[in-house]
Amino acid sequence: MKKVLVEAALVAITGAALAFVTNALSSRGLKLTRNYFPGANRPSLTARAANNPVRGAGGTNLATASAEQDTIARLRGKGFQVADGEKVLALFHDPRYEQGLIIFVDARNEDHYKHGHIPGAYQFDHMYPERYLGAVLPACNAAQQVIVYCDGGDCELSEFAAEFLRSSAGVANDKLFVFSGGLKEWERRQLPLEIGERKSGQFRTASK
Amino acid sequence: MDAIAVLARWVLGALFVYMGLKKALNPAEFLNLVRQYDMVSSPFLLNSIAAALPWFEVFCGLLLLAGVAVRGTAVVLVAMLVPFTLLILKRALAVAGAQGIAFCMVKFDCGCGSGEVLICHKLLENCLLTFLACWLIAGAGRKLSMRFSLVPSPVSTQVSEAGFSG
Question: Is the dihedral of CA A4, A5, A6, A11 positive or negative?
Fold first, then answer.
């Protein structure tokens, strides 16, 4: 058995070394020293479950409502302005949207973005800011209001993206909003989704 | 029985290569999933886990497929599978408590490389994989191995050579 453990140690050391080298060589590799979740302070799921146990019929709805309240409180605690569904809809239909004075920023990854995003929204995946800042930053600087969103619910990508835009890219906080309901709420309202690239001209309606 | 053991080794190896590659090709998403477990608070440690684990799994999978250092690799797999399974179980219990749903209705992307799954199924799958790995530790799956043991004893060398040539 001792020989097997020695062998296991050899496998573990060699595998770990190769894994780190491969990550360093990969174009998609992670930068080990970077904080990809700036300002993260969400309590763990275990802690939330212990503090807020939900049982019985309708429990899921209660839990969802409670989670939304938690999200809004957390966003405000970080100094973000929160936009609810009504406000987002009003901004979407505001004439300034067509002029680029109101913009939407989708904080999800490319696959999700291409599958369907708010029409005209810019993509900004905060994990790879260098890929998107060239397009997003001038648009943010020119806009009067910037609404950042992700899936909604437990999704925190919009917070991290907004935090990056505010702290690292210098976008003024008073124009930044986070859409707390996110794409789930957009879809719940049966609003159109643009598919593929930004301004692709291809749309679909939300699937129920 | 030998053929079944070799098949088990290949299945285990292929699964780890497949799951590892799925994560390795989208490390940012995997990083986000690893974070959900609240295992570590240091960004460096979190990034290190998410950066290295997928490629490490691919490496272990390839060793099993080729039949190199099979028992040692199986020990490493058990050392990964057991804590991962416990972490998934802990999170699933928390989700069931938070959402007020039956445990076997709990569904989430556990970061295992298979997307959103029913956790009951995932736990069963992990138990089966752990069992297969333990079987390999016991010495099964020796046939068609390139180098079953890296640190061979005289007896295992003879058996290994017999297995490879046979």
Answer: positive
Per-residue pLDDT of chain A (208 residues; tens, 9 = 90+): 889 999 999 999 999 999 999 999 998 899 999 988 877 765 555 555 544 444 444 445 555 666 678 888 888 988 999 999 999 999 999 999 999 999 999 999 998 999 999 999 999 999 889 899 999 999 999 999 999 999 988 788 999 999 999 998 999 999 999 999 999 999 999 999 999 999 998 998 776 5
Q: What is the ipTM of this complex?
A: 0.87
pTM score: 0.78
Amino acid at position A111, single letter: D
| Cα gap A28→A137, rounded to integer Å | 22
* CB-CB contact of A26 with B24 (8 Å): yes
Q: Which residues does chain A have within 8 Å of residue B25's beta carbon, measured at their own beta carbons?
A: 28
Q: How many CB atoms lie within 10 A of CB B161?
A: 12
Residues of chain B found within 8 Å of residue A16, distances taken between Cβ atoms: 52, 56
A28 contacts B99? CB cut-off 8 A: no
The residue in chain A having the minimum alpha-carbon distance to the alpha carbon of residue B136 is A4
A41 inside 8 A of chain B by CB: no
The CA–CA distances, whole Å, from A34 to A4, A31, A128, B8 equal 37, 6, 11, 40
Q: Is the minimum CB–CB distance between A30 and chain B shorter than 8 Å?
A: yes
Report CA Rg, chain A.
21
- Please check whether residue B10 is in contact with residue B70, taking contact to mean a CB–CB distance below 8 angstroms: no
